[in-house]
Design goal:
globular; about 475 residues; mainly beta; 11-stranded mixed sheet; 3 helices; 5-stranded mixed sheet; Immunoglobulin-like
């Protein structure tokens, strides 16, 4: 009898381990591929620009997050979340470097939420993280000075445990910061004409046309079957012949895109934190969840296509016969002062992985062996310090994202970063085959009362505990 119990126990353990492995590996990728040989069927939706009201020199923006319906062409309207009554997503905020802004966010949902300014250098109380909860019917106001250079940022909810769901249902939007960089005069800049927002997200629909949301505990997070761009499936946009600027955002829950352009050249001009030092011609651009990139596509007389290695065509760029007002890219875009080793005063190591033990079935994603706790501060930074952070992964695909700061990549697997990753970043891909060392300066704000977050931007992992907190002290 005792021997039988031991055998049964061993068999049970083996079954649990096998099922756990299958669960983490997941099913094959369900992506529905669109051929570049077909014609795109839907005109790309362009989120409107949100115009501010100016009072006493302060630009006031008003946002409201609530429920909506969007026509995804699924036979019936699909329930979504959005900002300002849009059918999905939210309006684009255009800010000016050096300006003072106040952004009010009203929660018209029936549950708590937040709105976080991803990539923004703002005081902690204005950051919109999990500590800035907005209860139903309430309004939260973030007021701050725009102290960073031109860049493409974005905003989205950041309530712990609900981030993936709220973003998946459509609550997100772009932020465009402009400045006086003279290189901008040579770049496409007419919003929606030759300067195009491209918010890439994957979705899966149920038989009744509703969104099918779930959290995947596996190493890659949830991967959905249908690609959307600005909420549009199989889109095209009519653009002038010549230089066209695409502001790319990966707003997906877990999917990494590998993008290229068929029928035209692609040149990267900006990363998360703004312009690169100079343009970089690319065959392929890796865009992980939370990443932004600005690319220039030189459109000729025939259609070109933004493509992904998994989904095929992402967006058809259809020339309208008009000439772009821009002709030649500038050789220099920005001056980027590299952070030197001698400037670094503190070293930290962030190890990302699954910390469950042998007997646990569900994954426990964590950083440095601990899962997120709202009541725990994981480390303290001294204002004015420059720190080096080494990012590693024991298992799984991760995207490391700290709030408030932009950083420089010092090394990837011991080698200097390629030119397209040598600018300012706020998100970076990390996995067992990709160790990344970054450096950042803490020079903007002290934050002794309200912490900033650092976390994985694969939203499944974030909601499952792969997040921590730090404060900045004088």
């Amino acid at each position: 009898m005792k021997r039988t119990s031991i055998v049964v126990g061993l068999v049970t353990t083996v079954v649990v381990v096998i099922l756990s492995a299958i669960f983490l590996i997941g099913a094959s990728d369900p992506a529905e591929r669109i051929s570049t040989n077909t014609t795109a069927v839907a005109r790309l939706s362009i989120p409107p620009l949100l115009e501010p009201t100016i009072e006493n020199g302060i630009s006031h923006y008003t946002l409201m997050i609530g429920t909506a319906e969007h026509n995804y062409m699924q036979g019936r309207m699909t329930d979504t979340y959005s900002y300002n009554g849009m059918s999905v997503l939210g309006p684009t905020l255009r800010l000016r470097s050096g300006a003072s802004v106040a952004i009010s966010v009203t929660n018209a949902l029936e549950e708590v939420t937040t709105t976080h300014w991803h990539g923004a250098d703002v005081p902690a109380e204005d950051d919109g993280g999990p500590h800035s909860m907005i209860v139903p019917g309430a309004t939260w106001i973030a007021d701050f000075d725009v102290i960073q250079p031109a860049a493409t940022l974005w905003y989205h909810p950041h309530a712990h445990g609900f981030t993936a769901e709220h973003v998946y249902y459509g609550a997100a939007g772009l932020i465009i910061i402009e400045d006086d960089n003279p290189a901008a005069a040579s770049l496409p800049s007419t919003y929606g004409v030759d300067d195009i927002p491209v918010i890439i997200q994957d979705r899966t629909f149920k038989d009744d046309g509703q969104l099918d949301f779930s959290i995947d505990q596996g190493e890659d997070g949830q991967l959905y079957s249908t690609l959307t761009v600005n909420g549009t499936i199989n889109p095209f946009i009519e653009v002038p012949n010549g230089l066209v600027r695409l502001r790319l955002l990966n707003g997906s829950q877990g999917r990494v895109y590998r993008l290229g352009v068929h029928g035209a050249d692609m040149t990267k001009i900006a990363s998360d934190g703004g312009y690169l030092a100079r343009p970089v011609a690319l065959e392929q651009l890796v865009l992980a969840p939370g990443d932004r990139a600005e690319v220039i596509v030189n459109v000729g007389s025939e259609s070109a296509a933004l493509v992904d290695t998994t989904f095929g065509r992402v967006l058809e760029l259809r020339p309208n016969g008009l000439a772009s007002r821009t002709g030649v890219l500038p050789d220099e875009l920005a001056t980027i002062e590299r952070i030197s080793e001698s400037e670094i005063t503190v070293n930290r190591h962030f190890r990302m992985g699954d910390v469950r033990n042998f007997w646990e079935f569900d994954a426990r994603w964590a950083i440095n062996g601990v899962q997120f706790d709202m009541d725990r501060i994981d480390f303290t930074v001294q204002l004015g310090d420059t720190e080096r952070w080494t990012l590693t992964s024991d298992d799984g695909q991760h995207v490391f994202h700290p709030h408030q700061i932009q950083f420089q990549i010092l090394a990837i697997n011991g080698e200097p970063p390629p030119p397209e990753e040598a600018g300012w970043e706020d998100s970076v891909l990390v996995n067992p085959d990709r160790e990344v060392v970054i450096a950042t300066r803490f020079k903007s704000y002290a934050a002794e009362e309200t912490p900033y977050m650092f976390h994985c931007h694969i939203l499944d992992h974030e909601d499952l505990g792969m997040m921590g907190q730090f404060v900045i002290v004088e």
